[in-house]
Design goal:
By secondary structure, the chain is mostly beta strands. The chain has one domain: SH3 Domains (SH3 type barrels). Helix content is about 0%, strand content about 45%. The strands form four sheets. The chain has a three-stranded antiparallel β-sheet with strand order 6-3-10, with no helix packed on it. Strands 7-8-9 form a three-stranded antiparallel β-sheet, with no helix packed on it. A hairpin with a 2-residue loop joins strand 8 and strand 9.
Length: about 70
Amino acid sequence: MIVTDFNGTALQEGDSVKVYKDLKVKGAGITLKRVPVIKNIRLTNDPSEIGCKIKKTVIILRTEFVQKT
């Protein structure tokens, strides 16, 4: 299974990504801004989603909104 970011770059377990647009996270009450780098991502069973930890909250992000750094 190959997981790619919005540019088509392959993502692997432990990579760092950044969000390329502001996102409101449902249920967590936070808004992800463009600038922060999200480190140490985890791959899920779904190739269009990745798991990560932001502000001590574990969330699932769609790969269409992230870019590998």
